[in-house]
Amino acid sequence: MADTSTISGILRTLVLPEMWNTIYMLLLTSILSMIFGCIVALIMICTRKGGLHANRVVFIVFETVVDLLISMPFIVLAVALTPLTVLIVGTSIGKTAALVPLTFVTTPVFAKFIYDGMLEVNPWLVQAAKSFGASDIQILRIMVKDSVPSIISGATLSCVTTLSSIAMMGAIGAGGVGAVAIIYGYQRSNYTVIWVVVGVLAVITQAIQIAGEYIYKKWR
């Protein structure tokens, strides 16, 4: 039986083994959401009014889906996506299965940050690139490069949001430290376990923010 009588016992037997599952979900979800988020943001920036290939219908569809997913309660969405998760992964339980709903939730958040960051790019910079005969790809590269600081800030906040979502996934069988807090803490009324998990999550959150600030300052 797990030793939950001391903080060191909780960390050694419960939290640390599951912390790696949390980090696994955090890293893979962040990578996937960054990839898909970039694609969605580029489509939106190109099809918006005044964009490189303005298309009102496409833009409204993507904007609506992004806003809808951002506003949707995470647990409700995770449960609703169970059939899709089973179709893709083969199961709805476990750390790998959790990547599907987590990616659906974090991708629109990241896409929104990239899109908003690219909107802040000086329009004269884009006009100058067009006047020199730059291709669409070259113009997008300029816009992305100029908005990197905003993207870094957005990525940092997205990772923190992802971490909170991962903790909630413990309620539906994803594992991780969130599951430890629910199973060994809440269900057994052991608040020491809960506060140890809170402390660990706070440390991880702080580490993400420090890393984000470091990268931001280095880029600036």
Give the CATH superfamily: MetI-like
CATH topology: MetI-like fold
Determine the number of helices (DSSP H or I, runs of at least 4 residues): 10
Kindly give the count of domains: 1
Q: What distance separates the N and C termini? A: 51 Å
Unreliable residue runs:
none
Q: What's the shape?
A: elongated
What is the C-alpha radius of gyration, as a whole number of Å?
20 Å
What's the main sheet like?
none
Look at the structure and give the CATH class. Answer: Mainly Alpha
Helix and strand sequence:
HHHHHHHHHH
Total E-strand runs: 0
Range of helix content: over 70%
Could you characterize the architecture of this molecule?
- It is found in: Cell membrane.
- The structure is a single chain.
- This protein starts with 6 loop residues before the first helix and ends with a helix.
- By secondary structure, the chain is mainly alpha-helical.
- It has 10 helices and no strands.
- It has a single domain, classed as MetI-like (MetI-like fold, Orthogonal Bundle).
